[in-house]
Amino acid sequence: MSRGEDPVDDLKVTAPKTWATGAPAVGHALQYSLSQTSPRRTALTLLNLNQGKGIDCPGCAWPDPDPKHRPMNEYCENGAKHVNDEATSRRVTREFFQQHSVSELDEKSDYWLNQQGRLTEPMVKRSDSDFYEPISWDDALDLLAAELRALNSPNEALFYTSGRVSNEAAFLLQLFARAYGTNNLPDCSNMCHESSGSAMQETLGVGKGTVSLDDLHHCDLIFVIGQNPGTNHPRMLTALERAKHNGGEVVAVNPLPEAGLMRFKNPQKVRGVLGRGTAIADQFLQIRPGGDLALFKALNLLLLEAEDAAPGTVLDHEFIRTHTTRFKEFARQARELSWDEVHAATGLTRAEMEQVRDRVLASNSVIACWAMGLTQQKHGVATIREIVNFLMLRGNIGKPGAGACPVRGHSNVQGDRTMGIWERVPQSFLDSLEAEFGFAPPKEHGWDSVDSIRAMLDGRARFFLGVAGNFVRATPDSEVTEKAMRQCRLTAHISTKLNRSHTVCGETALILPTLGRSDRDVQGGVEQFVTVEDSMSMVHASFGRLEPASEALLSEVAILSRLARRTLGEDPAIPWEEFEANYDAIRDRISRVVPDFEDFNRRVADPAGFTLPNPVNSGDFRTPSGKAVFSSNDFEWLAAPDGYLVLQSLRSHDQWNTIPYANDDRYRGIHDARRVVMVNPADLDELGIADRSAVDLVSVWHDGVERRAPNFRVVAYPAARGSAAAYYPETNVLVPLDSVADVSNTPTSKGVIVRLEPVAGQD
Ligand SMILES: Nc1nc2c(c(=O)[nH]1)N[C@H]1C(S)=C(S)[C@@H](COP(=O)(O)OP(=O)(O)OC[C@H]3O[C@@H](n4cnc5c(=O)[nH]c(N)nc54)[C@H](O)[C@@H]3O)O[C@H]1N2
Ligand SMILES: Nc1nc2c(c(=O)[nH]1)N[C@H]1C(S)=C(S)[C@@H](COP(=O)(O)OP(=O)(O)OC[C@H]3O[C@@H](n4cnc5c(=O)[nH]c(N)nc54)[C@H](O)[C@@H]3O)O[C@H]1N2
Ligand code: SF4
Ligand SMILES: [Mo]
């Protein structure tokens, strides 16, 4: 499948950048913004981005500094692009859908679909038609409600959420799904940080990060593992720069020498713009994909051996004794390591690891930050557990300047979970819902994203409602997933912009256009705001500032409230109408259902918002034993057979998840093409494949099915030996649905075994 995608022949390659986020970045953001909308709207969005009473950046989940220390332009190039992609002046109208059939739209690229602009009115594709046509809100919601009421069981319905959805809308969605009778609440987390939640819940008793921005600023040694902050969390570089300024060090662990990890030019400082910037990584470990479990097992053994050599000086015995269990079992297994295997798995030398050990021994506080490079691997959960072991050995959990920092993706993905968007939400949450609203929520777990696809495939699920996101492009095994989606009786999406999930749809399909976070949201004459929770558990308000893209748009809250009333009937115990009229009423309920949200409305009135407590930081480990758990993880890594490479699918600098903003990846020096695969020149030599030649990427899997992503261009790139990197979502077709991380069920998007097959007749 390669729909209307970029011709690879346009590819231009320049040297990868060794620094990130300097002056040109600001220029690029403005260029994109002005290509989407007027200078006035651009100015309005940018002046309000991340300010008190302003728009929370719809980009990543990196926290804002305290408002007292926040400069006027506290946003990054990518944040500016994301908000102006939403603020665009382009519109998708009913005439547009008259001109383009669904089949024709399905031939267009993801880029093209997004560039058409904001959706403006509800549309329906009926089962006997190949066109979307206008439908009134009342009729659209009646149609949905009738379908829901006609299902044989509530579990035939799936309610997907993407992490841009506000706390208020997320709370209503899960309330509606559970009152209707199902826990089928798959979300983008299932493809994202699920492995982090699984590993941390089990070992620390909490699924969220344990550090604050202040901890980062004052940390002695920060690990940045499997993460590309220069592109995906640009303002994290400011925090790393500050930590370095305070004397901290950074170790980066990545198969690619990512620009932001190497050097950072802070656009908010004149010195940053003009000078050489700050070197970020003091040590760069160019690891093979999937080698991180081996690395941390090795580091843990080195620490145990250092303790043997100088007893009582290396480990934090007090912490281990008071707060943890299973240390002995862990230590016994840790000593069984084979250095040959470690070397094969990581591609790193023992000397490099000993150097890291010495840095650790010289540091009173250590933070480990990580993202998709770890979570999207088969043994991702075990890897993160091993990192928790690593932190606990020296008491780097729950003390200032130290801790575990899974760096979240979508701006409110963490908040959505807090609000109960989780197919396996704890029983205590369900009990609170029951106490507050007087209905008995279903107890059995629902389906996550991968299981939802399986359920659609075999007819157990027939109804799909997506609240934001782009399910068919975010999920693995594109051909299989598309088939699953097309088998549904009805698919509906509450969306701001057109995407593939509108063109790969069920028999009947609905597009329900909604306000974005930057749009002014007025209910009953009163301006409303919504709230979000960032990666460091800070909750704050976001105010829409722009004139909405069309008069016909409804807010997510309004759509969900109206749908619930139509589906479930009026019920005084769940006052949907009140919720729609005034979001304070939703927050009052959140205060009573969700732990730590007491007095929500009053507390969120503070422009700084408030921080949710992390029990770990007061020595409260909510595991069955009441203690943090040392885990024993079997040695595992990704070995590609001869002639094969381990492919990771990742983001370019110019995309937001499933949506490319341009065919470039500026920091990596790739221009005008996305169907490219980056491979180490020595591997290309061994494989007998020439730089810039045309290849198909073919993945192999136990099921014997050959999955193929045709027509890629090879780019010789300083990637770790034995690895390859290509962009998501073009490569999702290669990830088998059954290739998932143990425990978390997250697709292994960073660990796909592939071969490069030269395209006949081309070189
Ligand atoms: N501009 C922009 N910002 C974004 C997004 C976006 O699409 N565009 N998406 C947002 C979302 S939802 C998320 S989840 C985050 C994602 O943020 P990241 O996790 O930074 O995103 P990826 O591009 O998937 O990059 C993964 C990184 O892991 C490395 N890696 C791959 N395999 C391995 C491995 O086995 N071991 C190690 N140590 N490293 C490995 C890759 O080389 C790459 O640097 O970004 C968020 N921010
Ligand atoms: N191969 C591979 N696959 C991956 C990944 C990978 O690294 N490799 N990463 C995974 C990760 S980490 C994630 S998080 C998922 C992302 O998966 P999703 O969150 O499902 O995808 P997005 O591309 O963020 O969704 C974009 C769409 O959201 C809609 N939208 C944007 N803003 C709003 C809003 O305010 N309200 C509403 N209602 N709609 C809105 C727009 O219509 C837009 O087209 O993809 C996953 N898939
Ligand atoms: S770092 Fe993330 S949240 Fe901050 S401005 Fe950039 S994209 Fe937005
Ligand atoms: Mo994500």
UniProtKB/TrEMBL annotation:
Gene3D superfamilies: 3.40.50.740, Dimethylsulfoxide Reductase, domain 2 (3.40.228.10). Its cofactor is [4Fe-4S] cluster; Mo-bis(molybdopterin guanine dinucleotide). GO terms for cellular component: membrane. SUPFAM superfamilies: ADC-like, Formate dehydrogenase/DMSO reductase, domains 1-3. The keyword Oxidoreductase applies. One of its GO terms (molecular function) is molybdopterin cofactor binding. Keywords: 4Fe-4S, Iron, Iron-sulfur, Metal-binding, Molybdenum, Oxidoreductase. Residues 645-752 form the Molybdopterin dinucleotide-binding domain. Residues 118-408 form the Molybdopterin oxidoreductase domain. Coiled coil: none annotated. Belongs to the prokaryotic molybdopterin-containing oxidoreductase family. NCBIfam families: Fdhalpha-like. This is FdhF/YdeP family oxidoreductase.
